[in-house]
Design goal:
Structural class: mainly alpha
Low-confidence stretches: none
Number of strands: 0
Radius of gyration: 17 Å
Helix content: over 70%
Order of helices and strands: HHHHH
Largest sheet: none
Number of domains: 1
Number of helices: 5
Shape: flat
Distance between the termini: 24 Å
Mean pLDDT: 93
């Protein structure tokens, strides 16, 4: 269910007809927060680079691309689409907040599903 709600929220942005809101959701709700998320995952998994070199390479590469390229480009895109219009800027900010809320709800749902599986495994 969390993935369905997250996907629905994503398509709501796409179907909004407001490119500046789509760009805001992408820029703030993905490109700027994924590097932090991936760093936290690497730290918490406790899996060394020696144990999972491909996994670590993928995460590090993803962090590099998002931080150094995707995030700055997505902000430029959003800024360009807002065209200095304060109404569009406010709409973009609201869209960014909704995108972050949707992502938080998704990860909270994933976390709860993992905990439920762990409880079942421990009980069984």
């Amino acid at each position: 269910e969390p993935s369905r709600r997250f996907t629905r929220a994503t398509f709501d942005f796409i179907q909004s007809g407001r490119p500046h809101e789509v760009a805001a959701a992408l820029a703030v709700g993905r490109e700027h927060i994924i590097p932090t998320l991936f760093r936290a995952l690497l730290a918490r998994f406790g899996v060394s680079e020696r144990q999972a070199p491909v996994f670590h390479y993928y995460r590090k590469r993803h962090i590099h691309l998002d931080e150094d390229f995707h995030a700055p480009m997505s902000i430029r895109l959003m800024t360009s689409l807002c065209e200095g219009d304060t109404v569009r800027e406010e709409q973009a900010l609201a869209a960014a907040e909704r995108a972050i809320e949707a992502r938080l709800e998704f990860w909270d749902g994933v976390h709860e599903a993992v905990r439920a599986c762990k409880r079942i495994t421990e009980a069984g």
